[in-house]
Design brief:
globular, Cytochrome Bc1 Complex, Chain A, domain 1, single chain, alpha+beta, 40% helix, 6-stranded mixed beta sheet, 31 helices
Length: 907
């Protein structure tokens, strides 16, 4: 059973993105044709890049990457929020949604079933000037994905009755984002920074605009912008470029060429100085200074990116406010990057009850001083080195690399991601200083403060009763088009995973290494098993948080600044603590591991930093305890767990304030042990090379005393309850239904329960809950169902967001679908689809080095075989509908589910 704790790391939790995401399924077209090759390879491309422009104008880029037998197909339509008609913000976003409600040659149900069988890893997003449809699939299924994507270029079913149903779901997406104070902050900044231009509103849309939008409006937008000459198709992965290009010509070539209008020119007006305050549900006060910075088409854009990195450096004056105790966190970044301008921001967080003005004034002084006097040259070098190193890591994720290419060609209108990297390399200190002076000094800015509003204590609520009586109806089988039915009919085991080396050092540390030569980089991730609910001395609650934050203050041999400089000099990123990691170029692996071990084993824990961190942690805890987010998690924990359960221990400002530095040191000695530590290394390195460096750096680490307990005891069944947590900022309700299962990760019922969970929620519209709650009823934007299990506990949860008036109606559908899993075997079609989905997902989990490393670490610490995915695949393949039903009948207690609602009181 998973229970979320009070801990809030000393980082800013704002989500500063103006891109809008929503799940999407596209369709397919049936008439193949052959197009002639139109363009040659660009000189800057390497041997793995193949380009072509079809006669109808669509550009195609194929990037071969052998990381895994996986490929990502991403279709970029060069139109988004900036092209929407005046008075109808969100039209592009609405059309993105409609693509999964029916495309030429396919229904919504067929599209959902196809992508579920492909592994379910598909989505879409609408930005200011691009709409992106993407899917990651096994390489053997690329043809099916291409046929499905091609349908968007042929036609989208924008029928009024389909839009009437989808309007409810997209409105719930709007309501969700409007419940986020950081979204409202960015929206307000965009409105002021780019007034009178398309940049003033993001691509999301509004409830009002969707209410007046019609199917005819969507068809007009499609006809205007969805043309092959206005599209870029990116394919990345383990594919044969020549064969794949032939398929692209066949499926996309017949689409008729259409010209699109030229984008309307506009002029940016001067920024007007403005100051405003917004209410917030964050556990701290957030203050922001907004600047207008260069856009992506400006020659100064790369210099602005480097400037932002310099200003956020942990060696810089802005971050120095944190160790000085003047702020809980700081950041300088860029959001809303458009062709003509970008939104830049300086951000500072202080305690929830504190006055943000002093910190805000100091941040402005620091930024002005840098702009006036210039930035340190060594920080410019460090920023450039970091950007270039990060670019090298781009090849280590197939979907990530596809997104890099799509962003470069689609959103930024560049020739390749390398173009941006080369621009970074050319940036000089003089460029950065010139941009800082021009865009930060003596300019109009927008100043905003997000001030927390207390939510009040949770109250008891009615768990259920407002919904109509519903009976389960049989789920109809979906007949796939011939071109999809045949290749997707076979249920096949994924390609066996490549087993890593696995050994223990003499001190008990477990080292797992998997060699991958995709790029000259190495990723290390590690963890020390611990459970602060069990190993924290009574009255010392919060000591683990204080220890984690003190890890950021250098080592016994290198102070905070010197340590960060050593990392900057090799372009590495590093984190120490109970969860630790390192990303570094292969050539610098030895030095990177040496620095990581120095920080992990010999943190400075300086006496002068302790009271600062102690005060910051106490302030964050105080804000957290009154925040709606924490109160929601706490209400759920108290409903699921018995009194005095270790997970209900609660850190408070008082327990943290009572700590001494010796308490922190003693806790570190007892909890940080090599025999509870696992390190996973993935990258361009052999097991022998990795072991030599890890043993050299960590080999002298020893453990004393008995191992601390890390597993919580099992818990008895919970009783049904209901609670409401008020959130003044929420305009929709976030609902969690949950109950504890009398099983664990090693129970025989784990796999049939997971397979049944995929029937309920694994395949978007192809799953029962999405079909019933979103596609048919339009009550929700998302509904998530999860089985989470540890070595001793398990929890089953369903989460959704909806209008208060629909909370009980949606729950009625959830309960109906859950109950049917206990009483009736799933249909053959549902079982086959869920198996296909989960088997392909197991293969897709190998699509990035990061996902491989995290999976190996999780299996090691759970005590599972490292090739558990292979064993699981065989188990899933052999399960029957009766076994799934029996496992749900034994474990699922629908009548005992607790309900916690965050937001307005349900009606």
């Amino acid at each position: 059973m998973f229970v979320l704790k009070a801990r809030t790391p000393l980082v800013l939790a704002a989500v500063l993105s103006v891109a809008v995401s929503s799940p999407l399924f596209t369709s397919a077209q049936k008439k193949p044709a052959v197009a002639k090759r139109a363009t040659a390879k660009t000189l800057a491309d390497g041997p793995n890049v193949t380009r072509e422009t079809l006669p109808n104008g669509m550009r195609v880029v194929i990037v071969k990457n052998r990381l895994a037998p996986v490929a990502t197909v991403e279709l970029n339509i060069l139109a988004g929020g900036n092209q929407t008609p005046v008075g109808f913000p969100g039209t592009a976003h609405a059309l993105e949604h409609m693509a999964f409600r029916g495309c030429t040659g396919m229904t919504a149900d067929q599209t959902a079933a196809i992508y579920a069988r492909l592994g379910g890893d598909n989505n879409a997003d609408t930005q200011g000037n691009v709409t992106q449809f993407y899917a990651t699939v096994p390489s053997t299924d690329v043809e099916v994905a291409l046929r499905a994507e091609a349908a968007c270029m042929v036609g989208v079913d924008n029928a009024d009755h389909e839009w009437e149903q989808e309007r409810g779901a997209i409105t719930q997406e709007v309501q969700r984002d409007l419940s986020s104070p950081t979204y409202k902050l960015i929206s307000r900044l965009n409105e002021g920074m780019f007034a009178g231009t398309p940049y003033a509103h993001d691509a999301l849309g509004t409830k009002e605009s969707f209410e007046k939008t019609t199917g005819a409006d969507l068809r007009a937008f499609y006809d205007k912008w969805y043309a092959p000459s206005n599209a870029v198709l990116v394919i990345v992965g383990d594919v044969d470029p020549a064969q794949t290009m032939t398929q692209v010509r066949e499926f996309f070539g017949p689409v008729k060429r259409r010209e699109v209008p030229k984008e309307t020119a506009f002029t940016l007006s001067p920024v007007k100085t403005e100051t405003f305050t917004l209410d917030s549900n964050l556990p701290y006060t957030l203050a922001v200074i907004g600047y207008r910075l260069p856009g992506t088409e400006s020659k100064d854009y790369a210099a602005a990116q480097v400037l932002a990195d310099v200003l956020s450096s942990q060696r810089g004056d802005l971050y120095a406010m944190v160790p000085a105790g003047k702020a809980l966190g700081t950041q300088f970044g860029m959001a809303g990057s458009y062709p003509k301008a970008s939104l830049g921001f300086g951000m500072v967080a202080v305690a929830s009850e504190a006055d943000a003005k002093p910190a805000l004034d100091e941040m402005r002084t620091i930024l002005n001083r840098y702009a006036q006097n210039g930035v340190p040259a060594d920080l410019v070098d460090a920023a450039k080195r970091s950007e270039i190193t990060e670019d090298a890591f781009g090849a280590n994720s197939i979907p990530g690399l596809a997104q890099q290419w799509s962003q470069a060609l689609g959103a930024d209108r560049k020739n390749s991601p390398a173009e941006a990297t080369e621009a970074i390399k050319r940036v000089t200190v003089a460029d950065v200083n010139r941009v800082a002076k021009q865009y930060l000094l003596h300019v109009n800015t927008m100043t905003a403060t997000l001030k927390p509003v207390a939510s009040g204590a949770p109250t008891a609520g009615k768990g259920f009763g407002g919904g109509e009586k519903l009976t389960s109806t049989p789920t109809k089988e979906v007949a796939l088009p011939d071109w999809a039915a045949k290749p997707l009919a076979e249920l096949r085991l994924p390609h066996p995973m490549t087993l890593p080396s696995d050994e223990k050092l003499p001190n008990g540390l477990r080292l797992i290494v998997r060699t991958d030569h995709t790029s000259p980089t190495v990723t290390l991730t590690g963890s020390v098993q611990h459970n602060e609910d069990l190993d924290t001395p009574k009255g010392k609650e919060g000591v683990a948080d204080v220890l984690e934050e003190l890890y950021g203050y250098g080592t016994t041999s290198l102070d905070r600044i010197a340590f960060q400089k050593e990392l900057d000099d090799i372009g590495a990123t590093e984190d120490a603590g109970f969860s630790f990691g390192l990303k570094v170029l292969k050539e610098n692996f030895a030095r990177g591991v040496e620095l990581l071990a120095d920080n992990q084993l010999h943190p400075a824990l300086p006496a002068e930093a302790f009271p600062v961190v102690q005060k910051q942690t106490a302030e964050l805890t105080a804000g957290n305890l009154t925040s709606p987010g924490y109160r929601t998690r706490r209400a759920l924990s108290e409903a699921l767990l018995p009194k005095n359960d270790p997970s209900l221990r609660e850190q408070t400002p008082q327990t943290i304030t009572a700590l001494k530095l010796d308490d922190v040191k003693n806790y570190m000695k007892s909890a940080m042990r090599p025999d509870l530590t696992t390190i996973v290394v993935v990258g361009d390195i052999t097991p022998a090379e990795a072991r030599a460096q890890v043993e050299k750096a960590f080999g002298a680490w020893t453990a004393t005393g008995p191992k601390p307990q890390v597993d919580l005891p099992p818990v008895p069944p919970n009783k049904p309850t209901a609670a409401i947590v008020g959130d003044p900022e929420a305009v929709q309700d976030s609902v969690t239904l949950a109950h504890g299962l009398q099983m664990n990760r090693f129970s025989p019922d784990y796999y049939p329960m997971q397979l049944g969970t995929y029937v309920l929620g694994g395949g978007f519209y192809a799953s029962r809950l999405y079909h019933d709650l979103r596609q048919v009823a339009g009550y929700v934007y998302t509904v998530d169902v999860n089985l989470r299990a540890t070595r001793t506990r398990a929890t089953y949860t369903v989460d959704y967001g909806c209008e208060p008036v629909n909370v009980s109606k949606a729950r009625a559908l959830v309960e109906r679908d859950l109950q049917s899993m206990k009483t009736t075997p799933v249909t053959p079609g549902e079982l086959t689809l869920a198996k296909s989905l989960i088997l392909r997902q197991l293969q897709l989990s190998e699509s990035s080095q990061a996902s491989v490393a995290s999976a190996l670490l999780a299996r090691a610490q759970m005590g599972l075989p490292l090739n558990e995915s292979d064993n699981a695949a065989k188990t899933y393949l052999g399960l029957t509908a009766e076994e799934v039903q029996a496992s749900f009948a034994r474990n699922l207690r629908v009548e005992d589910m607790v309900q916690v609602v965050r937001g307005p009181a349900p009606q």
